[in-house]
Write a structure and sequence with these properties.
Length: 191
């Protein structure tokens, strides 16, 4: 199919036989700057629906999301079911999806599609107020978390302070033990 001009019937037969192969071929052509319609590989049909241009599609997505911010807040306040319970119920599904994402290296591939400059540009556009208001809105969560963490951290400090520190070997042992105990703090926090 690649590079060959097709009649409507040939194209339809190829798409009916193996739509995935047709899809992959079209993606490959477009990724190499080849317009399959202009090249006659995909028969031109003026009645066929065309996907919106990338600019129009993205602009409409952003405009719709911004216009729906009130609906989002209403949905958060009035969920159709308890989101925490739903998340717990979907734990097996989440594990399966995470395993698949790890197997396919999706995190790494996603990171490779962005840049530090893009992150900075978004942060600059949003401004520091977004960060501070986000932290401020989570004050109760921070207080709760620190309330759980503080006695554990104090216990680590008390244990380390009780160890000898007369020699370099003693101080090295204290550092290594502090690291091990902080790992234990993390385990206790996770439950």
């Amino acid at each position: 199919m690649r590079g060959k001009k097709l009649t409507d019937e040939e194209y339809r037969a190829a798409a009916d036989k193996d739509p995935l192969k047709v899809f992959e071929t079209l993606v490959d052509l477009r990724s190499h700057g080849v317009d399959p319609v202009a090249e006659g590989i995909v028969p031109h049909n003026p009645v066929t629906k065309k996907v919106k241009s990338a600019d129009r599609w993205a602009r409409q997505q952003v405009e719709s999301a911004v216009a729906s911010s009130g609906k989002w807040l209403d949905g958060v306040k009035n969920p159709s079911r308890d989101p925490i319970a739903a998340g717990i119920d979907a734990d097996d599904k989440w594990k399966d999806k995470m395993a698949q994402a790890i197997k396919e290296d999706r995190r790494k591939k996603g990171l490779q599609k962005t840049s530090a400059a893009e992150v900075v540009a978004v942060a600059e556009r949003l401004g520091p107020g977004v960060y501070s208001s986000g932290v401020e809105a989570r004050t109760a969560k921070v207080v709760k978390t620190v309330g759980e963490l503080q006695p554990l951290a104090q216990s680590v400090s008390d244990a380390i302070q009780g160890m000898s520190d007369k020699t370099d070997a003693d101080r090295e042992k204290r550092l290594l033990q502090a690291r091990k105990l902080m790992i234990e703090v993390g385990k206790k926090r996770r439950g």
